[in-house]
Specification:
58 residues; alpha+beta; two-stranded antiparallel sheet; 1 helix
Length: 58
């Protein structure tokens, strides 16, 4: 009886672990990511300011 309960618990855990990633892939068609432009200021070898603009989406 104890082996049956342990094997049932292992089977349940395995089924849940496979079901969770399949839910992660589903998304709504109305979803639009939030994007913004981030400015990064750095300096080159000669001390000139270089500003890079990077698009960041979440």
């Amino acid at each position: 009886m104890r082996k049956f309960i342990v094997s049932a618990a292992v089977a349940l855990i395995a089924a849940v672990s496979f079901a969770a990633p399949s839910q992660a892939g589903s998304y709504s068609y109305d979803y639009q990511p939030y994007c913004f432009i981030k400015k990064i200021k750095s300096y080159d070898y000669y001390g000139n300011v270089i500003i890079k603009r990077i698009k960041v989406c979440r």
